[in-house]
Amino acid sequence: MTIIVPTDFSDTANNAARYAARMVNGTYDTTLVLFHVYDKSEDATQVAENLDLLKKDLAALVPVKMETRTEQSTDFINSLDRLARHLAAELIVMGITGKSKIEQVFFGSNTLKIAERNVCPVLIVPPAAQFTQLKNVALTSDFKDVAHSIPVVPIRKVLQLFQPSLHVVNVNSEHYVSLTEEFLAQRNQLTEMFQEFKPEFYFIGTYNVEEMIQTFVTDKNIDLLITVPRQRNIFSSLYKTSTTRKLAYESPVPILAAHE
Question: Does 2-125 carry CATH code 3.90.550.10?
Fold first, then answer.
């Protein structure tokens, strides 16, 4: 497995790199690629030295295979997109921080933009997150055409690394006493898709989706939240959708964005 960890050497990026290193500790055939995009104002030699220093710091934490890559460019997103496709990366790990609008524009936008590109799953790491274990993973689903909308292969690859308990949650204002036949059929399909993880299902009726998901994460001791952005859904209007901002910026646990 190839995992790209972009860095600008900030505290947020360094924390995401530490999370990634600890996450893959003990796994086989996994390589972390530390990647920095720099412009003409930066010295290429200094950039290489900073990357090597980060690599040494991570190696002191855990034994993990690592490579470093740099590119001079003014377009970080396109550079990261090209590298991910060239390496056939299976995951990108990035930090995110900032609850003020200014911080969100300068620190958070790149993380959300690369998630929108759908080149591979993106693990969004909150600034205070520290990897300890992945025992409980929550998968959010709208239970609509799950056979085609849920990217089973990339999600299973992550789950197989840790063998966690899988909690599938649907938050919907239209849930009443019993589930419709359609919801039951979709649940059966999801059970079959992830049968080795023995998924448990939760159907919650509420209008406040993001708040209920946060409560669910806390109540169930969730270590990782998996979302499946649709092209005209969660990431389609990055700065207009309050649910997106709240999930990405306020989640206490990392979010794995895996596109359909």
Answer: no
